[in-house]
Fold each of these.
Amino acid sequence: MRVVDIIEKKRDNFVLTNEEISYVIKNYAEGNVPDYQMSALLMAIYFNGMTREETAALTKEMLNSGDVIDLSKLEGVKLDKHSTGGVGDKTSLVVGPLVAACGGKLAKMSGRGLGHTGGTLDKLEAIEGFNISIGEDDFFRQVNEIGVAIVGQTANLVPADKLLYALRDVTATVPSIPLIAASIMSKKLASGADKIVLDVKVGSGAFMENLEDAEKLAEAMVEIGDSFGKEVVAVLSNMDQPLGHAIGNAIEVREAIDTLQGNGPTDFQVLCVELATELLTLAGIENPKKKIATALENGDAYRKFVSMVDAQGGSVAQIASDSLPRAKEVIPYYPTENGYIVEIDTAEIGRAAMLLGAGRASKEDEIDMAVGLESFIKLGKKVSTDEAVIMIHSNGAVEEVVEVLNKAIKIGDMLVEKPIIYKKIRNS
Amino acid sequence: MRVVDIIEKKRDNFVLTNEEISYVIKNYAEGNVPDYQMSALLMAIYFNGMTREETAALTKEMLNSGDVIDLSKLEGVKLDKHSTGGVGDKTSLVVGPLVAACGGKLAKMSGRGLGHTGGTLDKLEAIEGFNISIGEDDFFRQVNEIGVAIVGQTANLVPADKLLYALRDVTATVPSIPLIAASIMSKKLASGADKIVLDVKVGSGAFMENLEDAEKLAEAMVEIGDSFGKEVVAVLSNMDQPLGHAIGNAIEVREAIDTLQGNGPTDFQVLCVELATELLTLAGIENPKKKIATALENGDAYRKFVSMVDAQGGSVAQIASDSLPRAKEVIPYYPTENGYIVEIDTAEIGRAAMLLGAGRASKEDEIDMAVGLESFIKLGKKVSTDEAVIMIHSNGAVEEVVEVLNKAIKIGDMLVEKPIIYKKIRNS
């Protein structure tokens, strides 16, 4: 088998066999296939796509390039939840404890933020002492006892994806549906869950900017789940505006706590309830909506969060006393004109938070846990120049941030509104 | 400027600016752009093509990556001739002396053979002592005095093409019209000629297997010539059958000598006369057809060949005494059935000659100058199993060669004939 023949075959839009896909990915992961052949193949895949079978074979080979986590020490149905990433997306902080409070078991491995999107691990580390690298035994014990743990990925989870993603990033081959689907699903499958809920973000702050592409990605991921005999539900949700109000780290933890106590922003709460309902349904738990409502009302959800923080070494006192890091200044931001918000460049809103220090421009950057945006901008909101719509939590200059916000928020005279949830796609 | 943005732009089918093309090629040639980005860009070019302006910019940057030969020491119009490569293609050996005999000046840099195609330099080296690496001063003196010299390319002619071609070869990005056109034309333009005749082969023994692709390639090359202010004529010629009879090295030199004396195979002679006519016309020489006929008849063309051989250190005595290397055995090959030759896999005929030792499977292989095929197979020829159509000149076993020939020659009951010259495309 020669890699050049495999590239040529894909270039000419023939379907690759499982053996061919296996050969090229395995040898790439082992360093036997050079980057220049892989990038040519990736570009050919960008143009000609992959069939459902090809995508499954790719996922399988990526998955097998590293460790596959065995969750059999966990009792009951092992649930997992994944978001394709957005702005103000503190969903896991709420959904994890909420599902646990209703009897589900969520063994969650999360990532860090990069660019305009935040990361769950970064947010949790705003809590003093919170440990995202607990050992495997502690992880299993915690999930069995409390029902939820959120940790970082182990080093050797799908190493082929790390290599491929780094290569795609510099060769303009990132936005390919089968490559994205295989990348996400190989990691989810390697994480060992039985049933998975995918939060596929759609809009100006998401990886998939339009509904059509998001649907294709969701379908591809659900189909991969099917090929591996895993129940998968994809929830397509709105990312044409920041999710909830808070964008940052400590500030998002505070909003998650509010939401767990039943006082969250509507859009964020609706999404969390929806995702938790799907997870609980997959786990076979009855009356999930009612259980969720009760847990949010009677404090169970919040108490699960506190238990998780405690189990992972985080400071419960800091949470109880509402003394998470706070920025030195809170500066109001006023709209540039009167009217309705008709369009938001949500990625730019995320970038504004990054400029404050809430996120990373490159992997090496340090994060300022205190800063961020408290944003009340939503599509269709009526605004005026004398009423602040964003509170900028800052430890430094904000001129550039204000400029970015001015450009990112379009005000007009039309009333534009979009749903919170667009669609659900499932294989079960 | 970032290379990943340039790749993305081409991927999304936007037109690259001259600056972008210049940036990426220059930096690639200098080793600053990694192979993996270049191969992704090449694949994007494979899919989306290049405009005329982009192709010209690519050619210019490749050309500038190395030495550009200054032919100003040559008197009169500097002519060049290039073939895209075929089987039995000894055209330069005839066209060079023929043009010189009629008053033209051909300063020709040639290449070696690889795979099923032979190379002019290899053929000339069948003549004892023939030196293809004469110095620049000798080269100019010879062209000025005799009118023709055929030498190897200097080491630093278009180094970017060497790098790019090696990369294309292993990333399935060879068959892209703009890339092929820029590769050929950058070398032609770097060789310094004023006016160029391109012999674009079409058919089963050629790089371009169908007329449509060959036309596109010819147009692209003629357009590049136009962008550089050079008159270029492309002659699209038949490569659905071997050219002439001889396929090998010494054996092709003998056929070239016969042709220079007016006794060549019809198809080969027609092509040589056509190419020489175009070259002489470009040089502004009047009545070219008549001059050519005279030179072939009165021995002038042959004498120019002898002068060239002599000037480049080759043995004139060996030619005069017809003592070029000969194979130990000459074995007749008989058709497998009666009928007409309806199809020839000409590349496979070339490969049969290579198996005898007349060509190289890889760059390091040594050539046997004596061996080859004397083939009388032409499309439309009536054949019978009791009349040999090929004489195999061999220094070893021929079983495999016969098998290849059996498969390569299709016999049927239809009379298929194709022209020798399909079309001419020019910018003058």
Amino acid sequence: MIINGVEIDDTFAEAFPMKATRVIITAQTAQWAYNSAKSMTGFATSVIGCGCEADIERVLDPSETPDGRPGVSAMLFTMGGKGLRKQLEIRAGQSVLTSPTSALFSGIDGGKTIPLGKNLRYFGDGFQTSKVINDNRYWRIPVMDGEFLVEENTSMVDAIGGGNLLILAESEVEALEACEKAVESMRKIPNVILPFPGGVVRSGSKVGSKYPSLSASTNNAFCPTLKGVTKTELSPEIESVMEIVVDGLTEDDIKKAMREGMKTFCSIGAYNGIKRISAGNYGGKLGPFHFHLQEIMQ
Amino acid sequence: MIINGVEIDDTFAEAFPMKATRVIITAQTAQWAYNSAKSMTGFATSVIGCGCEADIERVLDPSETPDGRPGVSAMLFTMGGKGLRKQLEIRAGQSVLTSPTSALFSGIDGGKTIPLGKNLRYFGDGFQTSKVINDNRYWRIPVMDGEFLVEENTSMVDAIGGGNLLILAESEVEALEACEKAVESMRKIPNVILPFPGGVVRSGSKVGSKYPSLSASTNNAFCPTLKGVTKTELSPEIESVMEIVVDGLTEDDIKKAMREGMKTFCSIGAYNGIKRISAGNYGGKLGPFHFHLQEIMQ
Amino acid sequence: MIINGVEIDDTFAEAFPMKATRVIITAQTAQWAYNSAKSMTGFATSVIGCGCEADIERVLDPSETPDGRPGVSAMLFTMGGKGLRKQLEIRAGQSVLTSPTSALFSGIDGGKTIPLGKNLRYFGDGFQTSKVINDNRYWRIPVMDGEFLVEENTSMVDAIGGGNLLILAESEVEALEACEKAVESMRKIPNVILPFPGGVVRSGSKVGSKYPSLSASTNNAFCPTLKGVTKTELSPEIESVMEIVVDGLTEDDIKKAMREGMKTFCSIGAYNGIKRISAGNYGGKLGPFHFHLQEIMQ
Amino acid sequence: MIINGVEIDDTFAEAFPMKATRVIITAQTAQWAYNSAKSMTGFATSVIGCGCEADIERVLDPSETPDGRPGVSAMLFTMGGKGLRKQLEIRAGQSVLTSPTSALFSGIDGGKTIPLGKNLRYFGDGFQTSKVINDNRYWRIPVMDGEFLVEENTSMVDAIGGGNLLILAESEVEALEACEKAVESMRKIPNVILPFPGGVVRSGSKVGSKYPSLSASTNNAFCPTLKGVTKTELSPEIESVMEIVVDGLTEDDIKKAMREGMKTFCSIGAYNGIKRISAGNYGGKLGPFHFHLQEIMQ
């Protein structure tokens, strides 16, 4: 399939089941809600190294938040429920409880109930109080700037991690600028996050390594500087490859985000150095979710 | 001591020895260097919960970076050398190696040599190469967007954590706006970071809790909503207290930052609701570094 | 009267009757509406040199504009009705008719009807069409990007020009930064404009000159560099004086804006170099509107 | 000629001799230099209606200005020398002399000497002083904020007005976004200005009108809404046409700017709705400068 000169490979992104939750952080100003959420979702590019994959999902208008203040929604993804509980609690405690004027709410229904402020409340040293509104319990924890308001619980739902797009370009500059635009458009889709810095990852890996202790290593077949040295997947004009990884709540959410990304890359076009779109998979045997690029673009 | 109506307490901030390092992250654009550094230093507000305290120190002009590209300097602080090695390696691997167009350099001399790219290089699966320039070894690791250039080692130095200012204000709004300005001025001082979200923390704690399993809990004597309920350190007009925590390389660095912060608060003045500046300590018995507020302002 | 150390003179700003109108410029994006309005209200600092005094009044939300698009409101002030008609027509023709995707509407009721698109429509060369909605006629003029929609008429109302504040400071830097903040707060008041660049003027003038052909010249009594050379109104510590001129629809509008400005200057305070607030007048014999500073601040 | 699907007409832009000057405005901050320059070059889209065509040329680094402060360069174009002298003097007097902390310098050599501060100096009422540095005289005029420093003279040079590009697109949105990008790239070329709001004009005109008193009227052959009503130059898929007008010091300057604009339009491409690039001319009989689109792109 070729759109505006861009070849879209007949392949698929292979993705995996994850657990996810969404929280809403509000504050006196949008900037302070953002500060808190950015800290809470920092250092969270991959579950293996960071314990979770997390990012700000989007900025919320005061009309969209439980307390009518500016806010942001943030999502966390892990491989299992135990990890999610642990990451949510420690990150909320370190980056939201601490952050001036912040409040913290559940941002998702359905699924399984997990603690949000349930354990954080003990920081109040017995001075904390609670109130039930519409069947949800909220805790008011006295802190130096006033009170930290936090909902007792949130929900954990089934989710999917590892949707991805590989973009093959004639130069690093063209790849980078195209990815900036694609990330901007993909982040407008609800229910997804792009967990890597700026939404893009350039260190694609293969399973295994010549060093026995390492389980993964650079994906040499996609490294442009190794074209003469190793078996390559890259044609001669490709000088840079970047990847966008997408975690989302449902298959449909990830499809929408991947479609937005591909549309952006195609709109930029081969004339501007974007030659080919591919995706990463493991032959389809490991992950149960297969996102076929050409199907998504039909 | 009273300046522009603001009372400065005759007290001191009590601080502790830490270990620290500084790295320089560069990229094709300032935004991408920032993306990578923000991820690497995210979720790093306190050593206990996050493994380290970290933040972007400042944005660097291309003329200040080893490779002449836009960059940022980031600093990490831990309680000991083992933790610093571990945090540096995992955070560099997850947030810099992965980040498009990034390169990673040591940003500090002296002290003890610790690995920067030394172990990350194995990601190259044998395709990595190295070069020694001016006695420093650099690794070139093939990645999908081209190469990840990383210096083999950086340095770990003695440092100080826990410098702090408490600001007591007539309202939360006034405290927050004053802190924004103080943080902006304090972040211009080199060799220091303010590890909390936006540089400010509002959940000051005391040692101990009524719950035996918790070692710390809300500092009720400084909670304005508890004035009628508990023994308070707050006079009637104080409705909000916020804290700025400072980690720095030397006593002098922390003093300079605290002085900038206090100058900013005094310039805002009692007329605008900033009534008093204090500091947190444990009676002087735990931490060897004592930063006396009134001395710093002389 | 002294507030936060700032002396407010027992004097008044002397202002004059003017004619004014308001128009609403909309476009596909807020930026393009702003581009058009900024051009239309450019080079309009004083009626004598520029033909009118004009500025953007404020940015409008799509929900506030006649066609539901992003927009800005702009106001023009002149000494008389003839000048206003002329300036409105030529400026709308040069800066709004020409500007991509723009539409132009009346932004004021009452007063006297004056042409807005009434004559501009002939640019359509007979291809223009019109429609009456709610008793107002609108013209659709074919242009290259589609159509220029313009309301036939707007209104001209009585207004007031020459409200002003003089700010006396210890340094140019402190005066400038204080004026930036005051302008920001004054521009939030509806029905007023601050016609000078950035809202501030530093070339205050007196009537008359040693050169017979000039009717006005520098107000030497307020020039800090002339303190030793001429009779001065400045005490020794004053090193810089700036002025904010306000045109508004009613006395009350101008009072509100002057009050906001004075509140901002007082909040900055004498500690930050803002020593005194005064106002310009001609002894009260020329302009019928007298805005007494101390009354406004009561 | 077709590039990335965009048809470039075999035609030319017809341009005219003008007179031009360049000045440099500096101030304490880049924003205040910009405020002054934006006022000075406001309402200056066409010589006929506004007396001159003017715009900010570019923002200057402190290292590029005569007094080492932040600055901007601005250019004014008129049909003849008398108009240029008049416009320069009145605009400098109203928008730069008045603007806090500003200074004003010549930004061009060669050509004919014309007054810059030579007459403005009389505002100083005899208190002005002068100094000659490197054969240039500078005036120091006492004003309320300190001093207005202004160079006595600047230069007037031969220049060219009316270079232009017509962009034909499938929709108004696509035309507008493409023009934003083209304007951004064209404004990086030195020695040119794009005098219309945001750099774009949509009210292209033809000579003459059905109304005898009007010498120009809408260019109906390029109006998409008139395709069925009048003889058209537009093919069925064209729904919006916009124009970028370029004034420059030399033919080469205008060629470079037109080339940058065309490159940007072609890079966006037919896939994104940019179908055709043309240019406005009067059959080549009126203006001596002919800018052939296809030649420029070779």
